[in-house]
From TrEMBL:
Belongs to the Ycf3 family. This is Photosystem I assembly protein Ycf3. Transmembrane segments: none annotated. SUPFAM superfamilies: TPR-like (SSF48452). It comes from Acmopyle pancheri.
Length: 169
C-alpha cells in the first residue's frame, strides 16, 4: 500500500488529499506526477522517522524528475536524512549536489555550515586548534551565504559570526 494511503493524522491526510487533487487538475507530464508522488511519500516517511523508506522514495523520485530546482529539494532531503543518521560526509555530498542545481537554497548552506562547525568542535576536543579554525572559517563562509539569501533567518549563526569576529570578513 502506498504511504499516501496509510496516513494516520489529520494534517497528513489533508495534505495527501490536496496533493492528489492537484495532481489530477494541474497539467503535468506523467513523469512529473510520478516524481511528485514519490517525493510526497518520501516526505511523509521522513516525518515519521522511517528514513530507509524515505530514501527509497526519494531515489525513486529522482528517476523521472528532470527539473533541476525540484531535484535540488529531493537531494536536500536525502542530505537531511544522512545528517540525522550521523553520516555527515554523505550528507555534505547531497547538500553540494542540491546547491549545484539550486544555489539559492539557504537551508542547504546552513546545514553544510552546521556540519563544518560540528567538525570544528570535534577538532577542538581532539586538541587540534588549527584544524578547528579551518572548519570554523568554512562554516562562516557557508553561513554568510545562507544569511545573504535569508537575512531574517539563522539568528544564532549571525550571533556566532559576530561574536567570533567572522561576520565582516
Amino acid at each position: 500500500m502506498p504511504r499516501s494511503q496509510k496516513n494516520d493524522n489529520f494534517i497528513d491526510k489533508t495534505f495527501t488529499i490536496v496533493a492528489d487533487i492537484l495532481l489530477q487538475i494541474i497539467p503535468m507530464a506523467s513523469g512529473e506526477k510520478k516524481a511528485f508522488t514519490y517525493y510526497r511519500d518520501g516526505m511523509s516517511a521522513q516525518s515519521e522517522g522511517e528514513y530507509a523508506e524515505a530514501l527509497q522514495n526519494y531515489y525513486e523520485a529522482m528517476r523521472p524528475e528532470i527539473d533541476p530546482y525540484d531535484r535540488s529539494y529531493i537531494l536536500y532531503n536525502i542530505g537531511l536524512i544522512h545528517t540525522s543518521n550521523g553520516e555527515h560526509t554523505k550528507a555534505l555530498e547531497y547538500y553540494f549536489q542540491a546547491l549545484e542545481r539550486n544555489p539559492s537554497l539557504p537551508q542547504a548552506l546552513n546545514n553544510t555550515a552546521l556540519i563544518c562547525h560540528y567538525r570544528g568542535e570535534q577538532a577542538i576536543r581532539q586538541g587540534d586548534p588549527e584544524i578547528a579554525e579551518a572548519w570554523f572559517d568554512q562554516a562562516a563562509e557557508y553561513w554568510k551565504q545562507a544569511i545573504a539569501l535569508a537575512p531574517s533567518n539563522y539568528i544564532e549563526a549571525q550571533n556566532w559570526l559576530q561574536i567570533t569576529g567572522r561576520f565582516g570578513e
